[in-house]
Amino acid sequence: MAGEIELIHTTQAAAAGGHYAQAVLHQGVLYVSGQLPVRADGNHSVDQPFEVQAAIALDNLMAILDAAGQSPSDLLKVTVYVAGIEHWPAFDRIYARYLGEHRPARAVVPVPALHHGYLIEIEALAGSEGTS
């Protein structure tokens, strides 16, 4: 594989819960692993309403972007898994607050269940010309 692979890790987002990195940077593209709404200190939020869970998952994503020297405006593609499509409107409102005018490609995928009983998981691709 051409180019170096850099593993991205920050204590400002939930630690990886298995054999994977929070994110991987390769040839200027940041591949962010699925972010569940686990707080950076490791506390779970599975008992919280969807809106709280969505904000925590997005906070994790933003912290990982920052650790990689990127920002929300560098997001290229976001995939969101929600346990129940009825959460789509709430997610869209929260997501818009985080991203402002930036509109990366996105998919919202309804699923029957997520790990630990969470209601949302977010993965993303990001890149910027200044990143190598």
Automatic annotation (TrEMBL):
InterPro entries tied to this protein: RutC-like_sf, YjgF/YER057c/UK114
SUPFAM superfamilies tied to this protein: YjgF-like
Domain of life of the organism encoding this protein: Bacteria
Pfam families referenced in this protein's UniProt entry, alphabetically: Ribonuc_L-PSP
Record field: transmembrane: none
Family designation: Belongs to the RutC family.
Stored PANTHER family: 2-IMINOBUTANOATE/2-IMINOPROPANOATE DEAMINASE RIDA, PROTEIN HMF1-RELATED
Official protein name in the record: RidA family protein
Naturally occurring in which organism (per UniProt): Pseudomonas ogarae (strain DSM 112162 / CECT 30235 / F113)
